[in-house]
Every structure is written in structure tokens, then in C-alpha cells.
Write a structure and sequence with these properties.
This protein folds into 2 domains: about 260 residues, 3-Layer(aba) Sandwich (Aspartate Aminotransferase, domain 2); about 110 residues, Aspartate Aminotransferase, domain 1 (Alpha-Beta Complex). It is built from 12 helices and 13 strands. The protein has a 7-stranded mixed beta sheet with strand order 1-7-6-5-4-2-3, with helices on both faces. Helix 8 links the parallel strand 4 and strand 5. The longest helix has about 35 residues. The protein starts with a helix and ends in a 13-residue tail after the last helix. The structure holds pyridoxal-5'-phosphate.
Length: about 450
């Protein structure tokens, strides 16, 4: 009897090691919810192990998104991960923190001192851009209708260097997209070309500080002058929305004198990704208006089913509060001095990489001295155009570096891009350079295809 009971106990999965239990050899239901429950340790291990096949976030040089935060910030994230940001009545201090961060950003972006600050956190820059442009579409409709003019053919003027979310806005919200094409040697907005596309139905003009493709900066000051001139000459009241997804939290620290923000009269709204150079894990973004009057009241909903009346201006209702809190942590913890030093390090490393590439016999950077810590580069000489092969070779070492072609009319240019985030050290970049050389070697000396041996008799 005793022996048999022992035997039954050893078959009990709760006593087996994770790898020794029967779930280890069982097919799992992965596209349907299974009928049975499974032990937590086994499920954890199975999912954990599958995810080991993902790329390593630290080596993901394609991503602009933060992959490292301080332990104290992570602690705050863990402590607050259960909070829904929308429950402002239940979590009033969280609501207050969101409010403070919007004010900190408005101040950083030089909102006029008399401004009635308006803005919101979002899941990222995409949501922030959609919301900002929706506000400009609505304001344009209000202006047109009150002047007794038709408001059914809105358009949006941008450069070909904008992120796909701008096209999404145009398609989702029925706005004609008027895109200024790039040219083989110009990868940012041409202001003259933009002006030619603006008319009385233009709801906004977009400009990017830190394009996704090259990290370059649109000529915002020049654009502002041109749009001001149109107002003087034609009376068109056209706002500029700045896509500061990356640059919005770099330029204020690295180039405080550069005027791209609310110091320019036509800049009425700015988005920034907290989860990029705001140094927070995904997903948090921010939208800040120059003044409350830039956000039509119609778009702000008041709800009272969470306990008290609250205002909401987001596309999504619920979102996680933890990353908003982490943003607040970074602003308090680093201050301007800390952000400046992080950005200076990142840019110094980016410039180191760009410099090495500029003297390389086969690579060339788009900018030898990039303004932002983003290095776009390409192959020169006989291998030009084979950038995706380099990207595949680099992947074998673990590096994730994207290769992509530029939008029209620069589609003959293929680039590789490295985003030098806070955690990308000089040593890592030197290792990357070595692996770039080895990848190039494979392109130059492809492995010889040997004839198969004749079968042995
Ligand atoms: C210039 C620019 N705008 C918008 C976005 C979209 O940002 P998010 O991923 O925060 O939604 C990106 C993302 O890389 C970007 O580079």
C-alpha cells in the first residue's frame, strides 16, 4: 500500500520540475482557449521560453523606443501597473501627475506665459497626432461654417518624410493628403513646395523634428514664416502641427536656441513620444496645444460614470497609468541637466558612428554630424542597393538594423538606420562596426557553392 501511494505522488505534476512535468511534452491549445487549466509555473516557463526567440531589445537598433529604465522607475511601474489612467476620480493623484506632466511639457515647449494649457497623455505619438489633427480639422470646419463657406473638402499639407500615421489620419478622417515629394538629395520638407499646395481648405501643415527615415529636421522656422506670410496676404489662418515624436524631447536639451516649438507663432500643437527620448517604456505619448482655444470644445467629452464629472479627449478610453507616472519620475529625477547629459552622450556616440562610416570605403552616412542621435547610412560603390543583405547578415550577430527605401521621389535610395538610444554604448557601436565589416566581407566574398560529392558506391 505504502509503495503504491508513493508511486501516485511522484506522478503529481505539482511535485515535478517545470521541465519534468507532462505539459512539457504535451501539445498546447494556442489558437483556441483549452478546456483545462494548467499550472502557473509551467505556463510561465512555456511562454518565457517561446519569447526567448524574440530579438534582444538592447540590440534592437531599429527601435526608437526605450529599452532600459532605472530600477526605481521600474519599481514605480510595477507598483502602479494595475491603475487605469481614465479612473481619475478613483486615482486623483495619478490624474494630477498627468496634469503636471502636460504643464512641464508646455513649459519646455515655450507655450506663451498667458496660455491656458491643454494637452493629454496618449498611448504614443500616433494617437497624439490623430487627436491634434482632428482638433485642427474641427477648428477649420467651425471657421468655414461661421464664414458661411463650404467645409467639405479639407486637406492636409505635409512632406513625404512624415510617419505613416499622418496618412492614416487622412484616410481614417476623410482629409485629402497633399504630400510634398522628397527628391533624390532632399529628405525633408521643401517649404516652397508646401506653400504651393496650401489653400483655404488646408486644415494644417505638418512638420517633423526628427524624421523616422533619416532623423533629419524639417525647416520649421522657414515654414512658420511662409505660413505667416499667407495669413498676411490671404487671411488664411493655418496652424502648424509639429511631430516631435523623437526630436521633441531631444532638441530642448541639445539645442535650446533652435526655434521649432511654440516660440513660432503658427505652431499650435506638438506631439512627442514619452516612450522614445522621453526615456519611458512603451506606451506613452503626449499631445500639447499652444492654448486651450486650439482644442474645440466639441471634441472634449464629459463623463460622470466613474464617480465624478471628468473630461476626456483621447481615442481610447482606458490606458495604463504606470507609464505616465514613469514619465513624471524621469522629469523629476533627471531634470533638464540629466536629460541634457543623456542626450549629449547619445549624440556623441551617434556622431562617432557617423564619422567612422564617413571614412569607411563602402559605407556613407546621410549626415556626417547628425543633429539627433539617429544615424542613417547606405552602401556606396559596387554594393550600393544591397543594404537589406547587410541587415540580414547583422541579424546573425543579434543586431536588429532595418533596411528600407525612402518615399517618393527618393525611392532610389535605400538606407540602414541606427537609433542610438541611451543604452547604446561606444563599445557596442564599435562592435557593430566590426560586424558591419564582416557582413560586407560576406557580400564581397560569397561562400563558394561546392558541387555535391558523387555518391559513394
Ligand atoms: C516621426 C514619427 N512620428 C510618429 C511616430 C509614431 O510614434 P508612436 O510609435 O509613438 O505612435 C514615429 C515612430 O517612430 C515617428 O518616428
Amino acid at each position: 500500500m505504502l509503495t503504491r501511494r508513493r508511486h501516485r505522488q511522484t506522478r503529481d505534476d505539482s511535485l515535478s520540475t517545470t521541465y519534468g512535468n507532462r505539459f512539457f511534452t504535451k501539445d498546447l491549445e494556442t489558437f483556441r482557449i483549452g478546456e483545462e487549466s494548467l499550472p502557473p509555473a509551467s505556463v510561465y516557463q512555456i511562454i518565457h521560453d517561446e519569447l526567448e526567440l524574440d530579438g534582444n531589445p538592447s540590440l534592437n537598433l531599429a527601435s526608437f523606443v526605450t529599452t532600459w529604465m532605472e530600477p526605481e522607475a521600474e519599481r514605480l511601474v510595477r507598483e502602479n501597473i494595475r491603475k487605469n489612467l481614465v479612473d481619475q476620480n478613483e486615482y486623483p493623484r495619478t490624474g494630477e501627475i498627468q496634469h503636471r506632466v502636460v504643464h512641464m511639457l508646455a513649459d519646455l515647449f515655450h507655450a506663451p506665459p498667458e496660455a491656458d494649457i491643454a494637452g493629454t497623455s496618449t498611448v504614443g505619438s500616433s494617437e497624439a497626432i490623430l487627436l491634434g489633427l482632428l482638433a485642427h480639422k474641427k477648428s477649420w470646419q467651425i471657421r468655414r461654417r461661421s464664414a458661411g463657406k463650404p467645409a467639405d473638402r479639407p486637406n492636409l499639407v505635409v512632406g513625404g518624410d512624415v510617419h505613416v500615421v499622418w496618412d492614416k489620419f487622412a484616410r481614417y478622417f476623410d482629409v485629402e493628403m497633399r504630400t510634398v515629394p522628397l527628391s533624390p538629395g532632399r529628405f525633408t520638407l521643401s517649404v516652397d513646395e508646401a506653400v504651393r499646395r496650401i489653400d483655404e481648405n488646408t486644415i494644417a501643415v505638418g512638420a517633423v523634428v526628427g524624421t523616422t527615415f533619416t532623423g533629419q529636421i524639417d525647416p520649421v522656422e522657414e515654414l512658420n514664416e511662409a505660413v505667416e506670410k499667407l495669413k498676411r496676404e490671404k487671411g488664411w489662418d493655418i496652424p502648424i502641427h509639429i511631430d516631435g515624436a523623437s526630436g521633441g524631447l531631444i532638441l530642448p536639451f541639445l539645442e535650446p536656441e533652435r526655434r521649432w516649438d511654440f516660440r513660432l507663432s503658427r505652431v499650435r500643437s506638438i506631439n512627442v513620444s514619452g516612450h522614445k527620448f522621453g526615456l519611458v517604456y512603451p506606451g506613452v505619448g503626449w499631445l500639447v496645444f499652444r492654448d486651450r482655444s486650439d482644442l474645440p470644445d466639441d471634441l472634449v467629452f464629459r463623463v460622470d460614470y466613474l464617480g465624478a464629472e471628468e473630461e476626456t479627449y483621447t481615442l481610447n478610453f482606458s490606458s495604463n497609468a504606470a507609464f505616465v507616472i514613469a514619465q513624471y519620475y524621469n522629469f523629476l529625477r533627471l531634470g533638464k541637466k540629466g536629460y541634457r547629459s543623456v542626450m549629449e552622450n547619445a549624440r556623441a556616440n551617434a556622431r562617432h558612428l557617423a564619422k567612422k562610416l564617413s571614412v569607411h570605403r563602402m559605407f556613407e552616412p546621410v549626415d556626417e554630424k547628425p543633429a539627433l542621435p539617429i544615424v542613417a547610412f547606405r552602401l556606396r560603390g559596387p554594393h550600393a542597393g544591397r543594404e537589406s543583405e547587410i541587415a540580414s547578415e547583422l541579424r546573425k550577430y543579434g543586431w536588429i538594423v532595418p533596411a528600407y527605401t525612402l518615399p517618393p521621389d527618393a525611392e532610389n535610395t535605400t538606407l540602414l538606420r541606427v537609433v542610438v538610444r541611451e543604452n547604446v554604448s561606444r563599445q557596442m557601436l564599435d562592435d557593430l562596426l566590426e560586424h558591419l565589416d564582416r557582413s560586407l566581407d560576406v557580400l564581397e566574398n560569397p561562400p563558394v557553392k561546392r558541387k555535391p560529392h558523387p555518391p559513394l558506391c
